[in-house]
Write a structure and sequence with these properties.
The protein is α+β, with helices and mostly antiparallel strands. It folds into two domains: 2-11 and 18-72, no CATH class; 91-258, no CATH class. 17% of the residues lie in helices and 43% in strands. It has two helices and 14 strands; from the N terminus they run ααββββββββββββββ. The protein has helices at residues 2-11, 22-56; strands at 59-64, 67-72, 91-104, 108-110, 119-131, 142-153, 156-160, 173-175, 180-188, 198-203, 214-219, 223-234, 239-251, 254-258. A six-stranded antiparallel beta sheet has the order 4-3-5-9-10-11, with no helix packed on it. Strands 6, 7, 8, 12, 13 and 14 form a six-stranded antiparallel beta sheet that branches. The protein has a two-stranded antiparallel ribbon with strand order 1-2. The longest helix has 35 residues, at 22-56. The protein is elongated and about 135 Å long.
Length: 260
């Protein structure tokens, strides 16, 4: 390139018709060369952009000198559908009772008076739980179900588990299709009925477990229209198979728990 410029400088005076000076002509030639390189650079960028779009599928690309901006245009992918568990249980809280119950041999809560001197009567609130029919599908069994209460109070929200089932020493219950079992929610330890000493009872004895059973140290607190949630946990699957939210109030010693 330097030899070419030296020759061009020496021969320039013989070009009589040249309307521009040597320096201006050099600038023109340089501009032409730059334009050629710029054109080739643009072509190379267009090829790269096209290849990028082909690899990414449904994408659009815009290119400018020196960089490439790629904007995805694919619609968002829907989350995969999780198939339902075959023959899943259909537990439902069908009713809440307030009536007299019986604590037998300090191990079992029962709804039935056996007339034995080894039982103690208490006023209680308990829920009826049924593995109910579902007309849209077959209903399966749930083996090993525990009850849990989540109670709102003035000091915050507290979880209580496992709750006692009736007619069993264990804190789990088995549900086959159509089975109904009863879960203890509250017991009034004031047997005289003059004051309301309402407690949440916990049963720590599992299946084939010698752990001491009942704990009665947790109080229902006074107030009105506070939230309570009853969860039924399937221990084997590690899932909540039924969850219902309700309200409770404790006024003048009278406790009321309701679920919609």
């Amino acid at each position: 390139m330097p030899d070419f410029l030296d020759i061009l400088h020496r021969e320039w005076p013989v070009i009589k018709q040249a309307p521009y000076s040597f320096v201006i002509s050099i600038l023109v030639i340089a501009s032409i060369i730059w334009a050629i390189f710029e054109w080739r650079h643009r072509k190379r960028l267009e090829k790269q952009t096209t290849a990028l779009v082909d690899r990414s599928g449904n994408s659009t690309a815009t290119a400018s000198i020196g960089d490439i901006h790629v904007h995805p245009s694919s619609p968002p992918t829907a989350a995969p559908t999780v198939p339902p568990v075959a023959d899943a249980p259909n537990l439902a809280v069908t009713r809440v009772y307030r009536t007299m119950v019986y604590f037998k041999r300090s191990t079992i809560w029962s709804r039935f008076d056996s007339g034995s001197s080894l039982q103690m009567p208490f006023q209680a609130i308990f829920a009826e739980v049924k593995n109910a029919r579902d007309d849209s599908r077959p209903v399966g069994e749930a083996l090993g179900v525990r009850g849990e209460l989540i109670v709102e109070s003035s000091i915050g929200t507290t979880e209580y588990m496992p709750l006692p089932w009736f007619e069993t020493e264990c804190n789990t219950e088995n549900f086959r299709f159509g089975d109904t079992h009863f879960l203890l929610l509250a017991v009034n330890l004031d047997r005289s009925g003059s004051i309301g000493d309402w407690r949440i009872v916990l049963n720590h004895r599992g299946f084939n477990d010698s752990t001491p059973g009942m704990e009665m140290e947790h109080f229902w607190t006074a107030g009105s229209e506070k939230k309570v949630r009853l969860n039924l946990l399937h221990i084997k699957r590690g899932t909540v198979i039924c969850s219902v939210e309700g309200l409770y109030q404790l006024k003048k010693g009278l406790l009321d728990i309701s679920f919609p």
